[in-house]
Amino acid sequence: MARALRLYLVRHAHVDYAGPVEADHPLSLMGEAQAGRLVGCFRDVPLDRILSSPLRRAAQTVAALSESKNLTIEVRDWLREYPDALFAGERLPAYWAALPGHAITSWEGYPSADELQAREGEIYAGLGELLAEYGLVKRGFFYEGSLDKDVCVVLCGHVGSLASVAAYLMNLHTVHCLLTTYLENGAVNLLELRDDLGLGFAGYRCWLRFWNQCAPE
Questions:
Q1: Residue 4 · residue 195 · CB < 8 Å
Q2: Residue ranges per domain, the chain?
Q3: Where are the alpha helices (DSSP H) in 70-205?
Q4: Where does residue 107 rank: exposed (0-12), middle (13-18), buried (19+ CB within 10 A)?
Q5: Is 40 helix (H, G, I), strand (E, B) or coil?
Q6: Does position 38 have pLDDT exceeding 80, yes or no?
Q7: Alpha-carbon distance 177 to 199, whole Å?
Q8: Which residues contact 146 (CB under 8 A, 6 or more apart)?
Q9: At the fourth CATH level, which superfamily is domain 4-16+23-213?
Q10: 192: helix, coil or strand?
Q11: Structure confidence at residue 111 (pLDDT)
Q12: CB-side neighbour CA atoms (13 Å) of 183
């Protein structure tokens, strides 16, 4: 029987930004409403774990969900936001302007691959440890191992960190994910590692099941 590791990527709910994006902003009133809607989104999902960035807006986003599922929020530093140092000067405004799909007139506002590498490494290492807990190891485009049961895990983070999560799992580049898979505040995104490949060995592949579901009203 095919088994799956389902990773639900949840971007933190809405905040009223004032200052650096990596600062510890709380949720806005809109964000609190979005966080409340997550309970309904996951009502029929048998969650096993909830992992969150240490930043307050992420933990607040999954607080009601964790209570409804009687699960403890597990804080993971590798899910925190990318540091502002990667977006010095005019980089950050250019970055945010392009994310919703505006035409890109200059790449000057984006960090280089070398600049992203150190932060990506932390996220990739954290994901590797998570997969290892379930007996899975990333081998190129596939995942080697064998799951004993279906597992459902929520990862609550930020645009940058979750883009790197998607990049690692789907063998893409983080910048590509930032530009093409923008996450709405409070939205739910499902990436699934499944062993129904028809391969001649015990291998899993990552499938994108849905993106930006349960989006904010």
A1: yes
A2: 4-16+23-213
A3: 91-98, 113-133, 159-170, 174-180
A4: exposed
A5: helix
A6: yes
A7: 28
A8: 3, 135, 195, 202
A9: Phosphoglycerate mutase-like (3.40.50.1240)
A10: strand
A11: 64
A12: 27
What is the distance between the alpha carbons of residues 115 and 215, in angstroms, rounded to a whole number?
A: 31
Q: How do residues 111-152 score in pLDDT, each as one tens digit?
A: 666 777 778 889 999 999 999 999 999 988 889 888 989 999
Helices and strands per DSSP (H, E), number in the chain: 7, 8
DSSP bridge partners of 52: 75, 156
Question: What distance in Å separates the CA atoms of residue 110 and residue 4, rounded to the nearest whole number?
Answer: 35
Q: Where would I find the H helices in the chain?
A: 29-41, 56-61, 63-69, 91-98, 113-133, 159-170, 174-180
The two structure tokens encoding residue 98: 């392009």
Decide: 13 and 185 in contact? Cβ < 8 Å: yes
Least Cα distance to 168 among 180, 179, 158, 176 occurs for: 176
Phi first, then psi, for residue 213 (nearest 5°) are -85, 165
Other CB atoms within 10 A of residue 105 CB: 10
Give the least confident one: 7-11, 24-28, 54-58, 179-183.
179-183
For range 9-25, the mean pLDDT: 81
pLDDT tens for 189-214 read 999 999 866 655 567 889 999 988 98
Give the separation between CA 11 and CA 79, rounded to whole angstroms: 10
